[in-house]
Structure formats: C-alpha cells, structure tokens
C-alpha cells in the first residue's frame, strides 16, 4: 500500500512540475517536448529520483495510446482547405520523402556504427518520419501562424508519414528476426494493405461517429469521452485487420472535426487538454526509460548521425519530393528545417527491443540522442527561422470564447461568442446598431466592470467590454473580422503585413493606374486583373501571404477563395 501511495505521489509531482515548467519554457523559447523529456531523465535511474523503469512493452503501450490521442487531435484541427492546398506535396513527403530519408540515414548509420545494411536501414526507418506531436505542439505553444501552403504541408505530412515509417520498421524487424523472410513483392502488398485498410476503416469510423453524434441523446460531457474511446477502438481494430491504425485515427479525426456538429466544440476543448496530457506522459515516460550514462559511448556517432539527418537526408528528401510542385526556395528551406523528430522514433525504437534483436537497446539509445538533438537544434529555432524567411502571417481574429448551443436543435449550428473589445477593435466607440456586420448576428449583451448590460440598453462599446453575440457557427470567422482585435500591438499584424489599403482581386491595372504609378516594363495588358497576374507569376495555388511587386507597390494576397481565386489583396509601398 505504501508503495502504491509513493508511486501516486511521484506521478502527481512529475505531472505538476511538468505543467509548471510550461511557463518557463514559453519564456525562454524552449520546445515543451524537450522540457518534458529532460524532466523524465532527471527523474530516471541516473537522475534525482532514481526511478528504475526498463519495460519496453509497457512503454510501447503508453506511447501508442498517447500517439493515438495526439493524432486524433491533429486530425480534428485539420481543415479541408489544407488538404486542397497541400495534399499532393504532403503525400509525396510522407511516402517518397520517408523512403529517401530512410536510405540516406540508414547507409550513414551502417557506416558510423558498423551495422549491416539491413540494420542500418532499420535505424533509418525508425528515424524516417517527422513527429506530429512535436510539430503541432510547437506551432500551438509559440502561437506561430505561417503561410497556409507551408503549414498545411507540414501538418498533413507529420500526421500521415507515421504509417510509412511503421510499415518500414515492422518489415525490417521481421527480416532481421527471421532472416529466411523473402524480400519480394509481398512487402509492397503489406504496404498497400496498411494504407488501404487504414484509410477505409478511418473513413468508415469517422462517418459512423458523426452519424452517432447526430442521433445519440447523451449528455454533452460524454461526447469527448466517446471520441477518445472511439479513437482507441479504431486504432486497435485497424491493427487487427492489418491496416495502419495511426492513419485510420488521423482520418477519423479529420472527418469528425469538419462535421457540422454542435458537439465538435466540446470535443476540441477537451481533446486539447488530453493531447497535452498525452505528450507530457509520453515524454516523461520515455525520459525515465533512458539512462543517460548508457549513451556516453555512442554520443559522438549518434550526434554525427543527427547532423546528417538534419542537414543532408531531410533537405535532399524535401528537394526531390517537392520538385514537381515548384515550391519557393524559402518554403522548401523551412519544410526541411521543420523535419522534427519527436516521440515516434523513440517509440518505434522499442520494436527491435521487444523483438529481441541484436543491438536491441542500441537502436533506442541512438534514436533518443537524435530526437534530443532535433528538439534542441530545430525545435528551439522554428519561430526564428520562420520570421527570418518571411513566412509568418498575422493571426486571424477570432472570438475570445465561444460555446455551441448543442441543446437547441436547428438546421445550422448556433454559437454564443464573446469578444473582448480592445482599443484597436473596429467595434470600439460604436453602438451595436452602428456596426455593419458581414453576416447575421444578434447582440446578447456585454459585461462591463463585472456587470451585465442588457442589449436593450444599446450601450456604446468601450475598450475592456466583453461583447456577447449569437450567430451561426459557419459565420463566426467573418463576424470576427469586425468584432475581433486587429492585433495592432502584436509582433505582426494585418496593418503592417498587408498594408493600409485593401483592394478586390478583380481590379485591373487600368483601374490602378488612376491612383498609382505603375511600371511600363511589366508587359501586362492594362485589362489584366491582379488575380490574373498572381496566376501568371505563381505556377501553383496562391495562399494568403503570397505577394507580387509592381513598381514600388507590393500586392499581398489577403483573402483567397476555396477554388484559389484571390478575393482581396493588401497594398503597401516598398523601398526599391
């Protein structure tokens, strides 16, 4: 009994300290996952608490369940427009890119550690995929919003390349465990089976879950729990059917997150905390599993392998995979740099350990060092590199708080949203009936100095007010453009990024010539629209933040339709 109480005390203390460490991490700019990993090492066998933990089976169980929750959460937050923008390049990176990374890293590992070529390829497969947990958490914790083309490619790649890495790892472990296993077309069949079964089960489970949410009469508090249990169930079922459970869970999350369900908001809110808890538990556990003293002998070659992976294998994989899509060099450089390795390689390194292969623990130790170096070198510098490359774009205005009216049955999901009025809000110093909203919304009232002021009073909106409105969920983004903060005091805001003036994308050069001095050497017809000029100069889909320069003017895409048509551009002068 005392041992159980002590274990509970230690677990609670580690979780409590990890959550407090988030504040320190944000202040110094360190990746949160690195902090959790280091805390785990400090609590481990060679650390302050001296906790002994060397059970790879339990570690794999905890790691797999945590990854299921993280990937499901990532799918929930992936919007359809991201697939339209980046599905093809992300698919190339998550398949061809992983294979190229595996080969280059594997050959290097065989040379550095004296492995056979199959053992080297196994280590390359373990390290081949980027980690969704690492990518998602850094973007969220640093509130980093980058160009949609780059962000979508990275998020879809990191959420979908795990199946390829898992398939390669399982196949090579089988070959090493049973040398008589033939390397023939059956390997390709296994790959296809994993992908097709995973996609089919994920699609079916997502549709079934959405159908269930529409017809079940559970209390709203149970739907997030239903989502967690369903994601774990789908992972296990898909694995039993010979498919990729990770792919199935990610696809299921995508379908659920983009369904018009009032329960989605509650699921997202709960899953945000569950995803962070999963990351904390997983990285603490992996840190405790590692004994730092054991990696001293392989530290230098492991460090060399990490450098090869970061500066050689990943850039070459990105260059080849994205060659058909004509990505700008800045985009390619950043995608190369954000090839973060996180928990997935460490979890995959448990496979040869569990299989009892020769050098079983060495795979784990090397993967651990590589992940540690990746988090320090790449994770710590992501925001800095994005800003230096000019890839960061302003945050979109959104409500400070929103809750769906899930108990009200309507043809469209309704929400009550709260906007904290600031000095830079367009609604400040106006009465509600003076505000011209792009979509329908009703004024519910506001909170001022902790007092509720009813809508019938029609008060003047002031800085510091909490404005409450009722509107359709689909209209909230447009309403936020008027009622939300414009971010004037932020590091990067719409005014400085896009410019003071906003024009329609269909405006022609002839129309512009009446207000601006345009160059004669451009060669464009005066009847050409700004939208058409973007299409002529960009041989790919335009996203918000892309820009062209005409004379001393910069035109930046500010709003882009689902079909890629530029609806609005910002205009500002540039120094030549």
Describe the structure.
It is globular and about 75 Å long. A hairpin with a 5-residue loop joins strand 8 (553-560) and strand 9 (566-573). It has helices at residues 2-28, 32-43, 56-76, 80-113, 117-126, 132-141, 148-160, 162-177, 185-215, 222-240, 245-257, 263-289, 299-321, 329-337, 343-348, 350-355, 360-377, 382-388, 476-483, 494-498, 509-513, 530-537, and strands at residues 401-404, 414-420, 441-448, 451-454, 466-472, 501-504, 547-550, 553-560, 566-573. The chain has 576 residues and is of the alpha+beta class. The mean pLDDT is 83. It is 57% helix and 9% strand. Helix 8 (162-177) packs across helix 9 (185-215). Strands 1-2-5-3-4 form a 5-stranded antiparallel sheet.
Residue stretches low in confidence (pLDDT < 50, at least 5 long) are none
Specify the biggest β-sheet.
5 strands, antiparallel
Distance between the termini: 75 Å
Helix content: 55-70%
In terms of structural class, how would the helical and strand content be classed?
A: alpha+beta
Radius of gyration: 26 Å
Specify the number of helices: 22
Based on DSSP secondary structure assignment, what is the total number of beta strands? 9
Strand order of the largest sheet: 1-2-5-3-4
Apparent shape:
globular
Strand content: 5-15%
Mean pLDDT: 83
Q: What would a concise description of this structure say?
A:
The protein has helices at 2-28, 32-43, 56-76, 80-113, 117-126, 132-141, 148-160, 162-177, 185-215, 222-240, 245-257, 263-289, 299-321, 329-337, 343-348, 350-355, 360-377, 382-388, 476-483, 494-498, 509-513, 530-537; strands spanning 401-404, 414-420, 441-448, 451-454, 466-472, 501-504, 547-550, 553-560, 566-573.
